[in-house]
């Protein structure tokens, strides 16, 4: 892993309207569904209170409330959306569901609403998010679905994105409150997973993976606890023009895990894990070739960044790889296509670490 630097995000990312080409792709792969409520409807809340954590600290979420005249309709519609997202859309179970909370986030680019749905029969609850439909975020969700070990479930309708909740311990919380409890072998495993996670983000150009934008998921497996790392924020998909933004190990917020990598892993092991991750990404791309081609074709004809960012990023990756496809890229879709082609060629030539 390279030396940790302070990487800065250039500016607040604008929201990019969903293009007709992307809509066609989403419709083809059943991502578009009619829903009875949209993001703009939830903006009609009339009051809010601050949501605090167990230590009474501000979480940057506001619990919002609606007029009695429309509250029942809003809550019923949110339960319908829950059934569409997590089930088959059958509304027979609506009477057993309750909307326990609707929270609004005042931090970040997307200002999402978080909806908490509780099953009244057993008190189990599930979250989902209502956001403004943004092209770059949707590309990020799809690329995560294709290139990572995890399937992602979301719905797009008009200007609204419905996104499932990804469970896990936020990275910053984990490093502060749980990492010191981990054994030496567990820390080595976390180091390995972060190397792979970093490679995945770099290859598919998912930026801004600071510790609070991913979760760490502990799972008991026989006589050990296995740790996995998942991104939870896809807002910075292929937007920034600085290649460092797509390398999680360079963010100061990830210093704790980078230090563990330095302590626990030798370069030979790091290279092995990089090869493993690059190889499995290629296999996933090959296994979903038609879908990937359709997504990239849409991305190539879409605007999800600034021209100066495309130019800067293509130059940086060209200087790193020497691959002309990067040099002549005119869009973030071109860069993404060049990245996958570059990985595929290296995989076929058994030279996955040609660029390290």
Model description:
The chain is of the alpha+beta class. It folds into 2 domains: 20-133 and 153-164, no CATH class; 169-348, Orthogonal Bundle (Phosphatidylinositol 3-kinase Catalytic Subunit, Chain A, Domain 5). It has 12 helices and 10 strands. It has helices spanning 20-28, 39-42, 68-86, 135-147, 171-177, 184-203, 255-264, 267-287, 289-300, 307-321, 324-327, 332-348; strands at 47-52, 58-65, 97-105, 113-119, 125-132, 154-157, 160-164, 169-170, 214-221, 224-231. The strands form 2 sheets. Strands 1-2-3-4-5-7-6 form a 7-stranded antiparallel beta sheet. The chain has a 3-stranded antiparallel beta sheet with strand order 8-9-10. Strand 9 and strand 10 form a beta hairpin. Helix 6 (184-203) packs across helix 8, helix 8 (267-287) crosses helix 12 (332-348) and helix 9 runs antiparallel to helix 12 (332-348). The longest helix has 21 residues, at 267-287. The radius of gyration is 21 Å and the shape is globular. The chain starts with 19 loop residues before the first helix and ends in an 8-residue tail after the last helix. The mean pLDDT is 93.
């Amino acid at each position: 892993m390279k030396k940790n630097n302070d990487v800065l995000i250039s500016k607040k990312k604008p929201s990019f309207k969903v293009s007709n080409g992307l809509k066609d792709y989403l419709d083809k792969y059943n991502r578009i569904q009619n829903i009875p409520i949209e993001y703009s409807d939830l903006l009609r809340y009339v009051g809010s209170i601050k949501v605090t954590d167990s230590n009474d600290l501000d979480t940057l979420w506001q619990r919002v409330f609606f007029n009695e005249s429309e509250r029942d309709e809003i809550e019923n519609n949110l339960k319908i959306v829950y059934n569409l997202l997590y089930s088959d859309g059958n509304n027979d179970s609506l009477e057993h569901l309750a909307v326990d909370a609707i929270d609004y986030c005042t931090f970040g680019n997307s200002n999402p609403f978080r909806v908490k749905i509780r099953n009244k029969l057993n008190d189990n609850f599930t979250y989902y998010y209502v956001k403004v439909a943004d092209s770059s975020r949707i590309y990020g969700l799809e690329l995560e679905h294709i290139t990572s070990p995890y399937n992602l479930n979301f719905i797009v309708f008009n200007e609204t994105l419905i996104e499932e909740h990804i469970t896990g311990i936020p990275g910053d919380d984990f490093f502060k409150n749980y990492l010191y409890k981990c054994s030496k072998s567990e820390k080595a495993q976390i180091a390995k997973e972060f190397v792979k996670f970093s490679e995945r983000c770099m290859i598919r150009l998912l930026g801004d993976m600071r510790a609070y934008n991913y979760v760490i998921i502990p799972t008991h497996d026989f006589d050990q606890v296995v740790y996995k790392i998942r991104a939870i924020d896809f807002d910075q998909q292929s937007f920034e023009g600085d290649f460092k933004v797509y390398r999680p190990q360079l963010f100061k917020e990830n210093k704790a895990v980078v230090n563990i990598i330095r302590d626990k892993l030798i370069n030979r092991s790091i290279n092995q894990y990089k090869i493993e991750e690059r190889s499995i990404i290629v296999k996933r791309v090959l296994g979903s070739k038609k879908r990937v081609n359709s997504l990239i074709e849409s991305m190539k004809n879409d605007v999800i960044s600034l021209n100066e960012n495309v130019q800067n990023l293509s130059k940086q990756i060209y200087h790193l790889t020497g691959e002309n496809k990067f040099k002549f890229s005119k869009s973030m879709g071109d860069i993404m296509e060049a990245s996958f082609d570059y990985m595929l060629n290296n995989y076929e030539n058994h030279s996955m670490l040609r660029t390290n």
